[in-house]
Design goal:
This is Flagellar Assembly Protein A N-terminal region domain-containing protein. This protein has 562 residues and is α/β, with parallel strands linked by helices. It is built from seven helices and 41 strands. Helix 3 packs across helix 4 and helix 6 runs antiparallel to helix 7. The longest helix is centred in the last third of the chain and has 38 residues. 32% of the residues are buried.
């Protein structure tokens, strides 16, 4: 019987050695494969072609032999030791590089260092992960022969853009302090503790500019730098009564004793007049600067200030007029009116609040409030008349959970509350007329200009046509030459005005679509929203809802909390 064996050659690969002997079992490719599988060399790469050649040559050698005779030895290399192979892939954006290893077949495995060297040769220069290099080497060594293992071995670093410069207040303004009252040791709050907390002295730091940062440069795995964008700079603004510190140009300090107030990118300090209460005994107050009232403003009294007015208690059937903000710790209380018998928009309330800034109060009832910016009432606003350019917010800071019941509100941007209206169906009207009336007035003025330009254009065109129809002996080409440029000017002007009108009309529609009334808890019947020529009144009770204008209709959409 022919003997078959596997023997190492001088290249450390494996030869198949066949010693032909006539007779016995026939050796086939299957026999050889079984021999290889049972050997210590089974992980090596097999050369199937040489296996077939060896078997074919064996048959040729055995064929002429007599039984039990021996033929010449046949030797073929059938198994080869193959080292692990590596392929490096760099992502298109060069922010990552991966290595794919084809595991060894009896040959050498790749070390972490060898993987690193191969990656560097492929152009990867930065961002290597030592842990991933070691992990990949270990995975490939354990993997079955001739299988692929892939892992990301290098990662680029995204550039981190710089932060914008910011202005950080170092003192609290009046409204901030009052709407976040000081806690006592027993956990209660002292709503009347204003005192020196909201006042500053000469030299006190008011605000600090935190400079911009330049950002952190990034890189790709091929070591291409990725530039970072520096933050945007802003200028620290020294408002009235303040100045930039001589010791630190990023610090704003007070130049007087007074009331600090936030302005864009800075602060200002108003002269302050402080009084415990405003009553008949103190008389009315009229002060150039800001006024701080620790207690109440009683019935019939009037407080006028060019700056802010801060009240630690209540305002009852009184008048407050401020060139800045009005902040009232307690409530705004007017005399009760019979809103069922008299239309509220025709009423004159006994308490009148007027601010060129914003108005903040704990609650309000039967009040008349006019302001150029926003109104925020923390708890509830009942049967009041509001005329404000900004937003009405009834509720806590960041959560509109208060009650808006009854009243007539002219507002600029939105009305937000927890509950709007009441179970009794109190008429609650919200009208977004301020900006709409301005838009319409601007469009009316544009129409007037358009008519003037259009009439002039038509007049000149008629004159040109008339001159062109004159007989040759009466033709006046020099006059036509003078009129045509004037006609072209007015025609172009007409086109510009038409474009301006179209833009205004588009802006009006965008504004109307942007305003809304939102009840985060309940929207009761009797709530009316007016947007220009369109209005709708609720006829039943709704859950969390939003009233909006859309395509010439007032819609009521449910609010879905996710």
């Amino acid at each position: 019987m022919t003997k078959a064996s596997l023997i190492c050659n001088d290249k450390n690969n494996i030869d198949l050695v066949l010693e032909p002997i006539k007779g016995g079992d026939t050796i086939s490719t299957l026999t050889i494969n079984e021999l290889i599988e049972a050997s210590e060399y089974k992980k090596l790469r097999i050369n199937n072609g040489n296996v077939k050649n060896a078997v074919a040559e064996l048959h040729d050698v055995l064929k002429p032999l007599q039984d039990k005779n021996t033929g010449r030895t046949i030797r073929y290399q059938v198994l080869e030791r193959v080292d692990a192979k590596i392929n490096i892939t760099i992502e298109a954006d060069e922010m990552g590089a991966s290595a794919e290893i084809t595991s060894a077949q009896g040959g050498k495995h790749l070390t972490a260092k060898a993987i690193l060297t191969a990656a560097q040769a492929a152009g990867v220069k930065k961002g290597f992960s030592k842990e991933h290099l070691i992990q990949l080497a270990q995975l490939a060594a354990k993997e079955a022969p001739n299988n692929q293992v892939e892992l990301q071995i290098a990662t680029g670093k995204i550039a981190i853009n710089g932060k914008d410069a910011i202005i950080k207040p170092l003192v609290e303004s009046a409204q901030t302090r009052i709407l976040k009252p000081k806690k006592r040791e027993d956990g209660s709050v002292d709503m009347r503790d204003l005192g020196d907390i909201i006042c500053v002295n000469v030299g006190d730091p008011l605000a600090k500019k935190v400079p911009l940062t330049k950002g952190v440069q990034g890189y790709t795995v091929t070591d291409t730098p990725l530039a970072a964008e520096p933050g945007n700079d802003i200028e620290l603004v020294a408002g009235q009564g303040t100045n930039i510190s001589s010791q630190n140009t990023n610090i704003l300090v007070s130049e007087k004793v007074g009331l600090p107030k936030l302005i864009n990118n800075g602060m200002e300090v108003d002269e302050v007049y402080k009084i415990k209460n405003v009553t008949v005994s103190t008389g009315n107050i009229n002060f150039t600067g800001s006024v701080i009232i620790d207690g109440d403003v009683t019935e019939g009294m009037k407080v006028t200030a060019s700056g802010d007015i801060t009240v630690g208690g209540f305002v009852e059937s009184a008048t407050l007029e401020a060139g800045g903000d009005i902040t009232i710790t307690g409530g705004i209380i007017g005399r009760k009116h019979d809103t069922d018998k008299t239309q509220i928009s025709n009423m004159t309330m006994s308490v009148n609040i007027h601010a060129k800034g914003s108005v903040y109060a704990k609650y309000g009832q039967y009040a008349q409030i006019t302001c150029a910016q926003d109104v925020r009432i923390e708890n509830q606003l009942l049967h009041s008349i509001l005329d404000i350019n900004g937003r009405l917010w009834v509720g806590k800071d960041g959560k509109a959970d208060g009650k808006l019941i009854g009243g007539y509100t002219k507002v600029g941007s939105s009305v937000n509350a927890g509950m709007i209206g009441a179970t009794a169906g109190s008429n609650t009207v919200v009208n977004f007329e301020h900006k709409i009336l301005k838009f319409k007035n601007d469009i009316r003025q544009i129409d007037e200009l358009l008519k003037i330009e259009s009439d002039k254009t038509n007049e000149l065109k008629a004159a040109i046509n008339k001159l062109k129809k004159l007989p040759k002996d009466k033709a006046k080409p020099e006059l036509i030459a003078k009129i045509v440029p004037t006609y072209q000017y007015h025609a172009n002007k007409t086109g510009e005005i038409l474009n301006e009108k179209s833009s205004l009309e588009d802006n009006l529609q965008e504004y109307m679509a942007s305003v809304y009334l939102e009840a985060t808890e309940k929207l009761y019947h009797g709530v009316e929203l007016i947007v220009g020529d369109f209005n709708e009144k609720t006829r039943r009770e709704y859950g969390p809802s939003k009233m909006i204008y859309h395509e010439r209709k007032i819609l009521i959409d449910p609010i879905v909390n996710t």
